[in-house]
Amino acid sequence: MEKAARIAILGASGYTGAELVRLLVRHPRAEIVALTADRKAGQSMAEVFPQFAPLKLPTLVSIDAVDWSGVDLAFCALPHGTTQQVIKRTFEVAPHIKVVDLSADFRLRDPGAYEQWYGHPHQALDLQQEAVYGIVELYREDVRKARLVANPGCYTTTAILPVVPLIEAGAIDPEHVVIDAKSGVTGAGRSAKESLLYTEVTDGMHAYGVGGHRHTAEFDQEFSRAAGRAVVPTFTPHLIPMSRGIYATIYLKAVAGVGAAGVHRVLAEFYAGETFVHVLPLGQVPQSRFVKGSNMAFIGVVQDRAADRVIVVSTTDNLVKGASGQAVQNMNVMLGFPETMGLEQIALFP
Length: 350
Known about the structure:
The protein is α/β, with parallel strands linked by helices.
């Protein structure tokens, strides 16, 4: 039997941490050897998430109690701002391990952009420059060689997957990118917040972070890299009353002679060999329920009324392809496992 990788999950008491456990307990080459939590240290995983009651899992401990000599790879599912120092200290005591960070702390390559969007200087600049932005479909070879991968955000993954190949192919005008995206409530994490109470969320929807959501910085970075010049897209996120999912409607201006058919052709060819990105037939749009629980991104392309306007609809499960599933995909590539290992599940519907 092939040796299993020894895995630690930092921040296992949150939604993304629980999703990592759900995926990894059935991964044939992963063994969970450490689970950490802050306020819930000392509890069992079953006490925090009862769905894990039948499983034998490590007890939740503080990060300081982890024996790093017995860990090959760590997933860091901690809040942004705290992760920098945690990962810096971890590498100091255990330079042999690899890390997939699910926070926002290492996603931005420009220290100035990080300080602008997150309100304080970065505390681990050397690691920030080392980190690889972890959309495997775009950076596979960099991920393969990485020690530290910055797992992208859910909104950004969902919109970057269709838009970046179109910018790189010269099929759209980068100056006209509008992203209208909706998220399920798990995208806000598990902390108790008044704004996330059932009565505050149900029976309606609302925009938030209008004109200044922090994920915008990732769009700026990746679209500008693809275009070779500064690109400033418009992005508005919305909260809708469902548990999981990201649904992004993206309005684009195609270059002359391309239209929806050309946009569709670029995306279909770019993702033809990819397992986790599915481009629907021209004119069809996806539904979020058809990716729920899976590591899939579904993309649809529709011609708008004007010949140069194209509507692209992209959807993912924010906890899987938008977070923990993509993190496991990154782990697989970093450790030389088959990329799809442990991620083959089809969406749960109905």
